[in-house]
Design a protein that fits this description.
Elements (H helix, E strand, L loop, with lengths): L5 E10 L10 H11 L3 E3 L2 E2 L4 E5 L2 E5 L6 H26 L4 E3 L12 E8 L6 H6 L1 H6 L1 H4 L3 E3 L2 E3 L2 H4 L3 E4 L7 E4 L11 E6 L8 H19 L12 H9 L9 E2 L5 E2 L1 H13 L5 H18 L4 H4 L4 H16 L3 H11 L8 H7 L9 H9 L5 H11 L2 E4 L3 E5 L5 E5 L11
Parallel strand pairs: 10-11
Antiparallel strand pairs: 1-5, 1-6, 1-7, 2-3, 4-5, 7-12, 8-9, 13-14, 15-16, 16-17
Helix pairs in contact: 1-2, 2-7, 2-15, 7-9, 7-10, 9-10, 12-13
């Protein structure tokens, strides 16, 4: 597959039963520590090319412009590590316990975002062609991209899918849609579109993050290559998606087609699997493709929850909830607490990290790759932007534009309109 600029945005939750009741917001404290640390570059930007900022009550990190799903995994996990690093510094500075979570809902049912961004060509008709050729993937991929969580006192495969209210929308705070129409390319608008996908969950497991991006990138490139011509036509994709994410038994999942037939999400995914196979070239791509196929095989066969839990987050979270219930009882608060504790970033408190140590979840990147991703930007526009931010006196900075002070006391606007170009020309 060709390189494709992609990234994610995650709103993290930080809470302290000592600080929050006193009106002290750990999110703002953590951001200040992060910006001032050796991980910071200038303003909201970090040295690894990512951006950290305050958004609707949360600390949010938008990853730098990665070129592949594998690289994206490293930069997303780097964001997780950075949040936990500043959380630890706050605990040491204030002498209180602070919890940090990467999830999408709080115990009161309030939701917050985990978004994906893909840089796509302008020459594909939007939104109609994406609605026809991509939406069936987005509403059916939840079987392996869902994070799982409790909403309305029931376990759902994907909290964000469960709370998605329409097929196409222009907002992301309310009335969220499967396809998002806001046109903010952060690049040359004549060449690029930023496909903003807001129907995704916050994932801890590396294989799940990899699958989310590999499958979506592959399908987007297959659309552009003219390989997606006859995707399944779904009669009620939104309603069926809501039904599917409320059930964690594969034999209860189904979509109605416009022709009046029933089709499973696995069958929809296999349609795309066959098309994307034609684009697979490298060993890394073959590994991700094989993971995709293996997950579908598992769901269509005798489901092994231990095996699926190594790659599929909602299965892993459900496995941990059952383990905690067996140890502590079957009360509802135990289920809710385990669901949240799975996503805790503290490596000794989070249930995800316990699973990783026990070999119950797989890795797709190494610790050294994540450490490098914390410190250095990818070889994309992020490299050029970071060089500007760390070399010159900057007045304002955005993804595609930086203003620097000149020797005569004025300012110069430097535009970075090609997200693939790592070279800086001043």
């Amino acid at each position: 597959m060709d390189d494709m600029i992609q990234g994610t945005e995650h709103e993290y939750t930080l809470y302290s039963d000592k600080l929050n009741p006193r009106g002290v917001d750990p999110h703002r404290l953590a951001l200040d520590v992060l910006w001032r640390s050796n991980l910071g570059a200038e303003g909201e930007f970090l040295r690894n090319g990512s951006r950290a900022y305050f958004d609707v009550g949360h600390l949010e990190i938008a990853t730098s412009e990665a070129l592949s799903p594998q690289e994206l995994v490293a930069y997303e996990k780097a964001g997780d590590r950075m949040v936990d690093t500043v959380r630890l510094k706050l605990e040491e500075a204030h002498g209180v316990k602070i919890d940090a979570y990467k999830n999408n809902t709080d115990p009161d049912g309030v939701s917050y975002g985990s978004h994906e961004n893909y840089c796509v060509p302008r020459d594909v008709d939007f939104p109609d062609e994406y609605l026809h050729k991509l939406a069936p993937h987005l509403v059916s991929r939840m079987i392996y991209t869902g994070a799982g969580d409790f909403i309305d006192h029931q376990y759902v495969l994907s909290p964000c899918a469960y709370l998605t209210s329409q097929l196409v929308s222009g907002g992301n705070l309310s009335n969220t849609g499967v396809l998002h129409t806001r046109d903010e390319p952060h690049a040359d608008p004549e060449r690029f579109r930023r496909l903003h996908v807001i129907i995704g969950d916050a994932l801890m497991a590396e294989p799940a993050i990899l699958l989310r991006h590999f499958t979506t990138q592959g399908i987007l490139q297959a659309i552009h290559a003219g390989l997606i011509e006859d995707p399944p036509e779904l009669a009620s994709p939104l309603e069926d998606m809501w039904h599917n994410v409320e059930h964690y038994e594969p034999d209860q999942w189904s979509f109605a087609t416009k022709g009046g037939d029933e089709i499973t999400p696995m069958q929809i995914q296999r349609y795309y699997l066959e098309k994307v196979e034609q684009l697979v070239e490298t060993p890394e791509e073959q590994d991700a493709f094989d993971r995709w196929e293996a997950v579908l095989d598992e769901f269509e066969g005798d489901v092994d929850t231990d095996e699926l839990g190594k790659s599929v987050e909602w299965v892993a979270r459900l496995n941990e909830i059952e383990r905690q219930k067996d140890r502590k009882g079957h009360e509802e608060f135990v289920e809710m607490a385990a669901a949240k504790q799975y996503s805790e970033l503290h490596t000794n408190r989070g249930l995800y990290w316990r699973r990783e140590r026990e070999g119950l979840t797989e890795r797709v990147v190494t610790d050294s790759q994540v450490k490098k991703a914390m410190e250095k930007p990818p070889h994309t526009r992020a490299t050029a932007r970071t060089e500007l931010l760390t070399t010159y006196e900057v007045t304002t900075a955005d993804w595609s534009e930086v203003r620097v002070l000149t020797e005569d006391g004025g300012t110069e606007r430097l535009r970075l309109m090609d997200p693939y170009d790592p070279e800086l020309e001043v």
